[in-house]
Amino acid sequence: MNDKTPVTRKSTESFTTSSKILSRESWKIFQIMAEFVEGFERLEQIHPSVSIFGSARTPVGHPYYVMAEQIARLLSDAGFSVVSGGGPGIMEAANKGAHAGKAPSVGLNITLPHEQTTNPYQDISLSFRHFFARKVMFVKYASAYVVLPGGFGTLDELMEIMTLIQTGKSRHIPVILVHAPFWKGLLVWFRDTLVPEGTISAEDLDLVTVLDDAQDVLQAIFRYYEHRGFEPSVEEEQIQLNL
C-alpha cells in the first residue's frame, strides 16, 4: 500500500503560489537595499544636520507652523542642514524655513494612502516606501532632533530616538521638545508613572529638553557641541555604522 501523500492539482497550485510569494519577498530585499544605498550616498554630504518633526495636519499660519519655520531658518543660517519628512504641515514649515536659509533643506518623503504630499521647499528630496529605512536616515546623520507638536508619527520618531540613545544604539544628541504646554502631560506621565513603575530610570527624563523659543533651540544645540565639536568621535562613528 502506497502511504505517500498524493500530489493533487490543489497542492501543486498551493506550492506554486507560495513559491511566487517567496520569490516576490526575496526580490523586495533589493528594493530595500536601494533605499538604504541612495539615502547613505545622498545624505553623507549634509553634516551637520538637524531633524525636525511635527504634525502633517498643522495648517499654514498656525503658531506651530510659524515656530517650525523660524527654527528651521535659524538653523539653516547657522549652517545646519534641516531634515524633515518632506510632507505638509510642520514638515513643510521646516523645509520652507531651511529653503530660505543658507544650508540645504532635505525632505525624506514616504508614500502613504493619505496626508503625505511632497512640499516644494526641498533642495534634496528622497522617496521611501519603507518607514524603517526612512527612520534610519533621520537618525544616522542628525546632530539634534527638534520635535514640535504632532500625532502618532511624531511620537513614533520621538520614542525611536529616545530608545536608541537610552540603549546605546545611537550616539547621544540633543532631543528638543518645542512648546511646553503640549508636552506637559506626556512628561508628567513619564515622571509619575513610568519612573515609579521602574520601566524607565529617572535619568532617562534627561534625554529631552523642553523649550518654547526658536532662538533658545539654536543656542541649546550649540551649547551641547561647544566643547566637543559636531564631528562624531571614533566610538560614535562605530555606533552609527551599526545603527
Could you please describe the fold and organization of this structure?
- The protein is of the alpha/beta class.
- The chain has helices at residues 9-43, 63-77, 90-99, 131-140, 152-166, 180-197, 214-225, 234-241, and strands at 49-53, 81-84, 105-110, 124-128, 142-147, 175-178, 209-211.
- A seven-stranded parallel β-sheet has the order 4-3-2-1-5-6-7, with helices on both faces.
- Helix 2 runs parallel beside helix 3 (90-99).
- The model has no long low-confidence stretch (mean pLDDT 91).
Features:
243 residues; Rossmann fold; 8 helices; 7 strands
How do the strands and helices of this protein lay out in sequence?
Elements: H1 9-43, E1 49-53, H2 63-77, E2 81-84, H3 90-99, E3 105-110, E4 124-128, H4 131-140, E5 142-147, H5 152-166, E6 175-178, H6 180-197, E7 209-211, H7 214-225, H8 234-241
Helix pairs in contact: 2-3, 2-7
So what's the overall shape? globular
CATH architecture: 3-Layer(aba) Sandwich
Fraction of residues in helix:
40-55%
Uncertain runs are none
Secondary-structure element order, N to C: HEHEHEEHEHEHEHH
From the helix content, strand content and strand pairing, which structural class follows? Answer: alpha/beta
C-alpha Rg (nearest Å): 22 Å
The first-level CATH class is given as Alpha Beta
Q: Kindly report the CATH topology.
A: Rossmann fold
Distance between the termini: 58 Å
The largest sheet is: 7 strands, parallel
Give the strand content.
5-15%
Number-wise, the strands total 7
Total count of helical runs of at least 4 residues: 8
Strand order of the largest sheet: 4-3-2-1-5-6-7
When the domains are counted, the total is: 1
Mean pLDDT: 91
